[in-house]
Amino acid sequence: MSNVSLDDKTMARQNGIVQPLLTDLYQITMAYAYWKSGKVNDVAVFDLFFRTNPFQGEFTIFAGLEECLKFLQNFHYSESDIDYLRQTLPSTIESAFFDYLKDLTCKDIILSAIEEGSVAFPRVPLLRVEGPLIIAQLLETTLLTLVNFASLMSTNAARYRMFAGKHISLLEFGLRRAQGPDGGLSASKYSYIGGFDGTSNVLAGKMFNIPVKGTHAHSFVTSFSTLDDIKCVTLQHAETQEQCNLLEKSLDWRNRLSLILDASPEEASDGELAALISYARAFPSGFLALVDTYDVKRYRFDGLHRQHMNGHSGYNSNCGTNGITPAIRSRCGYTVERTLRSGLLNFCAVALALHECGYTAVGIRIDSGDLAYLSVLARDTFKKIAETFALPWFAKLTIVASNDINEDTILSLHEQGHAIDCFGIGTHLVTCQRQPALGCVYKLVEINGQPRIKLSQDVGKVTIPGHKKAYRLFGADGHALIDLLQRSSEAAPEVGQKVLCRHPFQESKRAYVIPSKVEHLYKIYWKDGQITTAPKPLSEVRERVQASLRTLRQDIKRNLNPTPYKVAVSDDLYNFIHDLWLQNAPIGELS
Ligand SMILES: Nc1ncnc2c1ncn2[C@@H]1O[C@H](COP(=O)(O)OP(=O)(O)OP(=O)(O)O)[C@@H](O)[C@H]1O
Ligand SMILES: O=P(O)(O)OC[C@H]1O[C@H](OP(=O)(O)OP(=O)(O)O)[C@H](O)[C@@H]1O
Ligand SMILES: O=C(O)c1cccnc1
Ligand SMILES: [Mg+2]
C-alpha cells in the first residue's frame, strides 16, 4: 500500500474549530485515569456505528471521512491547549501527564472505513479505530461530531434528490436558517454530496468547489417604488452593440402582453417593473426574477383549481371578486389563491425586451402561494407567449420554487402535477427538521486482543464484540442483498459459495446466501501517521452516493414503510457473541 500525501488541491483546509480540544471533558479525564493506571501501552479497537437509520428510512449515507482524516493528520495539542488544560483540570494532575499529551499524535492509529458516500446500515461500523487505548479514546467525540452530522445531512439531501427525481435541479438555500455558521457550512458541503446541484453559500462554494447559484430577494423588488427609480434605462445589444432602451421596450411589451395574458398593466406594479429592468441590466444573460412580491390574493373555487391542475384551463380570473365575504366563500368551497398577475406580466415584458437586445432570460422564482397551481399558471403563460410570438425558448423558461419545501411537499407537488424545474430548499434541509440527529456511537470492542461486549437490557444496544470485517453480498439480480459481519480471522465470503447469514440476536432468523458479487466494505485510510488511501474529491463522493443508492432495491428506498435492508453476522461471529454474552451476563438468583 503506497502512502499518499495530500496537499491543498486534493483536500480543502479543515475548519479551524476542528482540533483536539473540540471534545468532551471526560475524554481527557479518562485519558489521565488510563495513564495513571498504567494503561499507556494498552491497545484498543473501537467501532463507530449507528443503530437506527434516520428519517424513518432504511438507509444512511456515510459521510465525513475526509474530515476525520484531516483531523488525524493535524492532531496535536498546542502549548496553549496544554496551558488551558493545566488550569482547568484539578491541580492534583501530575505534570508528566501534560508532557505525555504534548507529544501525542495519531501515528500509531489505524483507521479503517467504509468508502465515503456509500449507503450504510445499522450496526455495520462506519469506522474502525485501532491503536493505543488513550489516543483512540481521545478521538471519540470529535470523530462522532464529524461523522454524525455529515452522514445525517448527506442522507437528508439524498432523500430530497430521490423524491425530487433526477430531472429537477436542487439548490441549497439554508445558511440563514442553519444551526450556526459551522452547521451552515457543513450543510452546504453535505447537501452537495447528497445530490444537490448547488448552494447559495458563497464560502462553501469557495472552500469546497461547489457551484454557487441564486436569484434575488424581495428586498430588491421593494427597494424600487416607481419607474423613476431606474437610474439608467439603456442596455447595449449583445451583438450589434447598439444602445437599447430597456424601459421603453419593456413598457411596450407589457401593453402588448396585457391583451394576450388577460392581465391589465394597471394591475402590475411599476416599482416591480423598475426592479426587474434594473436586475436585467445588471445580469442580462442570467435574468432570473422573483415574481411573487406583488402577488394578488383572490378567492377561487376549489373545483376549478383541481380541473386546472389536471391540465384543463378552467381557471377563472374573475372568481372571488364579487363581494362575498371570506367566511361565505370558505363554506362554499372557495380557497384563498394568489395569482402572479403583476410579477408574471412584468417578468415576461422584461424578458421579451431583453430578447430584443440579444439576450435570453433564464426564468422566475415563486416563493409563496400554491406552488403547483402557480407553476402551472406560469408555464401556461410561457407557452402561450412562445406560441404567439414564435419563440420556442420562452416555453422552456426555468421555474424555481421555494418556501419551506420539505420531502412531503415535493411528493405532494409531484402527485398534484406542477411545472417546477428547480427547488430552492433551506430550513427543512439544513436543520434536518424531520430528524435533527444521527445516533452514531463509538464503542470499545477489543482491548489487548481480548473482545469486549457491552450488555444491555435492550438487545438492540448490545455491541458486537471483536475485530471484525464487513462484506456486502449481492444477489442474482445485481442488487445489494445483505451486509455480513465476520470475525477478522475468518475467510472472506466468495462469489458462488453458499454463506450462512444469521441475525445477530435472533437464533431462528438465518438464511443461506450465494452471492453474485462480494464487496469488501473496509479499506485502511490511515496508518503509520499517513493517509494510505486518498479520499475522493467531493464530486466523486457525490457520484458515489448515487451509484451506491442504485444498488438498493426500490422497496428499501421508498418513502412509506420501506423494507429494512438485512444486516447479518456469520455463524462463527454469532457463536462468538453469544458465548461472550453468557460469560459476561451475571446469573441471577430467584428467591
Ligand atoms: N401545491 C402545494 N401542495 C402542497 N404544499 C404546498 C403547495 N404549494 C405550497 N405548498 C407549501 O405550503 C406552505 C405554504 O405556506 P404558507 O401557508 O406560509 O403560505 P405562504 O404562501 O408562504 O403565505 P404567506 O406569504 O401569507 O405566509 C409552504 O410550506 C409551501 O411549501
Ligand atoms: O423556506 P426555506 O426552505 O427556508 O428557503 C429559504 C427561504 O429563504 C428566503 O427568504 P426568507 O424566508 O428569508 O424570507 P421570506 O419571508 O421572504 O420568504 C427564500 O425566499 C426562501 O423562502
Ligand atoms: O438565491 C436565492 O434565491 C436565495 C438564497 C438564499 C435564500 N433564499 C433564496
Ligand atoms: Mg420564506
TrEMBL record:
Record has Phosphoprotein as a keyword: yes
Nicotinate phosphoribosyltransferase N-terminal domain residues: 21-148
Record-linked SUPFAM superfamilies: Nicotinate/Quinolinate PRTase C-terminal domain-like (SSF51690), Nicotinate/Quinolinate PRTase N-terminal domain-like (SSF54675)
PANTHER family xref list: NICOTINATE PHOSPHORIBOSYLTRANSFERASE
GO biological process: NAD+ biosynthetic process via the salvage pathway
Native organism taxonomy: Eukaryota, Metazoa, Ecdysozoa, Arthropoda, Hexapoda
Catalyses which reaction(s): 5-phospho-alpha-D-ribose 1-diphosphate + nicotinate + ATP + H2O = nicotinate beta-D-ribonucleotide + ADP + phosphate + diphosphate
Pfam short name (any one): NAPRTase_C
Protein's recorded name: Nicotinate phosphoribosyltransferase
Enzyme class name: ligase
Domain Nicotinate/nicotinamide phosphoribosyltransferase, residue spans: 362-463
Domain Nicotinate phosphoribosyltransferase C-terminal: residue ranges: 468-576
GO cellular component terms attached to this protein's record: cytosol
GO molecular function per UniProt: nicotinate phosphoribosyltransferase activity; transferase activity
Family: Belongs to the NAPRTase family.
Record-linked Gene3D superfamilies: Aldolase class I, nicotinate phosphoribosyltransferase
